[in-house]
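FORM 12-B: Structure-to-Sequence Request
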């Protein structure tokens, strides 16, 4: 199956719009693992095992591994996820953005080395920085569109005088992703949960693209408002789905020996909140 088919199947099978972000920070690990970067795989694998039937995707953040020289542990974790939850797609959160020849290498890293099903990208350098990823048929790519960090306003909320209608930059990205850039139906958009009105605007411009929405949980995004703004469907079936990411709230739900059970409780609660927030058909 391609990425979108996997995502749709996992959403149905697990009854979930939840993505668990895997952002391992050893200083926050529970007792017995705390402070030990060699335990990144062990910690993340146990979180995966505790939540695999509750999610529509997993999203490992590559910087949290690379900073601790733990790329080998990330490779092991990717293999573990494919083994224990083969129906759950994996989005590698890398936010790459570079010229075509370099982008080819980053695409090879994401899809061949790590075996990700999708990757996050920065579209700032334009189409030729995105195109190499779309040569991997069946894989997905999420373009940064309207991010949840305060500094996103510096560029994303600026008007483009040279483009017809003078759209905001994030609106222009949404239109490109829904239209001419989406050659094989592989693109999605990243939109922060802290801006529900702008999620709704992006959904209006990109009615069928999957929206990857970080910011629920520790970052303060409202789960119900996020789903109402971004999810579209009929008869309970998604026509424009959302992938609502929660990282720290799940990973560090407990600092004790019960961290797996605590992570599962938070993931279950969040999954059910997201499902309940779906607008009635």
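FORM 12-B RESPONSE
SEQUENCE OUT:
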């Amino acid at each position: 199956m391609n990425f979108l088919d996997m995502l749709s199947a996992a959403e149905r099978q697990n009854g979930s719009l939840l993505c668990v972000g895997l952002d391992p920070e050893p200083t926050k690990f529970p007792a017995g693992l705390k402070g030990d970067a060699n335990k990144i795989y062990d910690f993340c694998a146990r979180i995966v095992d505790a939540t695999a039937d509750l999610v529509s995707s997993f999203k490992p953040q590559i910087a949290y591994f690379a900073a601790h020289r733990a790329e080998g542990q990330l490779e092991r974790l990717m293999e573990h996820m494919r083994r224990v939850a083969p129906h759950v797609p994996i989005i590698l959160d890398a936010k790459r953005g570079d010229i075509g020849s370099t982008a080819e290498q980053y695409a090879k890293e994401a899809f061949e080395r790590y075996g990700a099903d999708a990757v996050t990208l920065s579209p700032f350098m334009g189409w030729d920085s995105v195109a190499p990823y779309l040569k991997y048929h069946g894989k997905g790519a999420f373009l940064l569109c309207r991010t949840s960090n305060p500094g996103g306003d510096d560029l994303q909320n600026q008007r483009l005088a040279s483009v017809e209608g003078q759209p905001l930059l994030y609106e222009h990205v949404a239109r490109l992703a829904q239209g001419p850039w989406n050659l094989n139906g592989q693109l999605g958009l990243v939109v922060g949960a802290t801006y529900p009105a702008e999620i709704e605007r992006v959904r209006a411009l990109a009615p069928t693209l999957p929206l990857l929405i970080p910011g629920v949980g520790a970052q303060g995004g409202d789960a119900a408002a996020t789903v109402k703004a971004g999810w579209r469907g009929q008869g309970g079936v998604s026509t424009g789905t959302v992938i609502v990411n929660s990282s720290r709230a799940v990973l560090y739900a407990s600092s004790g020996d019960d961290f797996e059970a605590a992570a599962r409780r938070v993931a279950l609660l969040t999954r059910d909140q997201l499902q309940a927030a779906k607008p009635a058909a």
